[in-house]
Amino acid sequence: MKFVTTWTARTHGAASEEAVKRSLELFGKWSPPDDVTFHQFVGRLDGTGGFAVLETDNPSSLGEASAKFGPYFEFHIYPVVDIGDQAALGSDGVEWRASI
Q: 5, 46, 53, 64: most buried, per Cβ within 10 A?
């Protein structure tokens, strides 16, 4: 199944510089789980977060990064489908409502 993950840097006030430094140090040592495929992995140009399009049959593996980087980033993980599949679901819904 596909997922979109977003992350946003947590505000650390005066400790922000140290938090950025530490999170980059940790990221340099991190490897994604073997059962997760990254289709897109992009950062925001404003430096406050990023997005990833991921695929895995084990959604629990997506919690791994959140657990490790949670003090530095707020994560949101959304299950998604390709737009053609979403359009077909929408069409089925329209047909079902029209039949009643």
A: 5
